[in-house]
Specification:
Radius of gyration: 18 Å
Number of strands: 11
Structural class: alpha/beta
Helix content: 25-40%
Strand content: 15-25%
Largest sheet: 9 strands, parallel
């Protein structure tokens, strides 16, 4: 199992210099990754008056400050971005970091705030269509090959976006969604990893073991025997106490989780403040 730190792109972490400091501390303390949210307003009511940073600028700062840890968004709502622009942002970050990008993608939300506020589509089915079509286009763009595409939502006529990503055939793609909703996990099974939240264990709370086992069984069934030897990641997370973390993490690892993503609880303001996050980072990742 590998260990990452998860921070929002608002509050103290809207500042790229602060994110660079967090990334440096995480690398020095032995963490394996740093993942950043991708929101423009999140919940307008809850985040009123808060500053937001562009996640790609924040990730750039983190890449320039480090040399080892994995970096990426958890998660980018592909339907809110133009695939060709997103492809360039990911490829540029992958080159700058020396091939350390993991691309986390999902539907995005809250939909009414993040999409509806700007006059964008708010039908989840249409957003899901754009997500799937956009992901397929991204994979083609990252190859550096000439792309021709005539889809329901996007079009590409004889375009080759260079340079290709450092990681080939592409950076790992992780897909987020709520379990036991099966549609996002069917999507996740087609890519390189699943980042589930659970209806009974939201962000910052470790999932129930039985629910995780059920999900991993479902993913294995979808991926089939041919994919059994192919690396595949399942990312879970929450809050750990450095003095007593094995009881939380070891059962998750035994069930098949491959990453533990350290996340603050979404209540109060600790999760978007530097000091409490930095204290936990400097204590180091869990050990098994």
């Amino acid at each position: 199992m590998r260990f990452s730190v998860n921070i929002p792109n608002f509050g103290d972490f809207a500042d790229a210099r602060t994110v660079a400091r967090v990334a440096t501390a995480a690398e020095q303390a032995g963490w394996d990754g740093l993942f950043i949210w991708d929101h423009v307003v999140h919940s307008k009511k809850q985040r009123a008056g808060q500053a937001f940073g562009d996640p790609w600028m924040l990730l750039t700062a983190a890449a320039l400050a480090t040399s080892r840890i994995k970096l990426g968004p958890l998660v980018t709502p592909v339907a809110r971005r133009r695939p060709e622009q997103l492809a360039r942002q990911v490829a540029t970050l992958d080159a700058m970091s020396g091939g350390r990008v993991i691309f986390g993608a999902g539907l995005g939300g809250p939909i009414e705030d993040e999409f509806g506020s700007f006059g964008d589509e708010t039908d989840p089915k249409v957003l899901a269509e754009r997500l799937d079509e956009g992901l397929d286009l991204l994979a083609q763009y990252w190859s550096g090959e000439t792309v021709n595409h005539q889809g329901r939502h996007y079009r590409a006529d004889e375009v080759a976006l260079l340079p290709a990503t450092v990681q080939q055939p592409r950076p790992p793609v992780w897909i987020a969604g709520y379990w036991p909703r099966k549609a996002p996990m069917r999507r996740a099974a087609r890519w390189d990893g699943a980042v589930p939240l659970f209806l009974h264990a939201n962000h910052g709370v470790a999932p129930p073991i039985e629910e995780l086992r059920e999900l991993i069984g479902y993913l294995r069934e979808l991926r089939g025997e041919e994919a059994a030897g192919t690396p595949y990641d399942v990312i879970v997370g929450g809050v750990t106490d450095p003095a007593d973390h094995r009881g939380v993490i070891e059962p998750l690892a035994e069930a098949g989780a491959t990453w533990w993503d350290e996340r603050q609880l979404i209540r109060g303001d600790d999760f978007y403040r530097l000091d409490p996050v930095l204290r936990r980072i400097e204590q180091g990742p869990p050990t098994l």
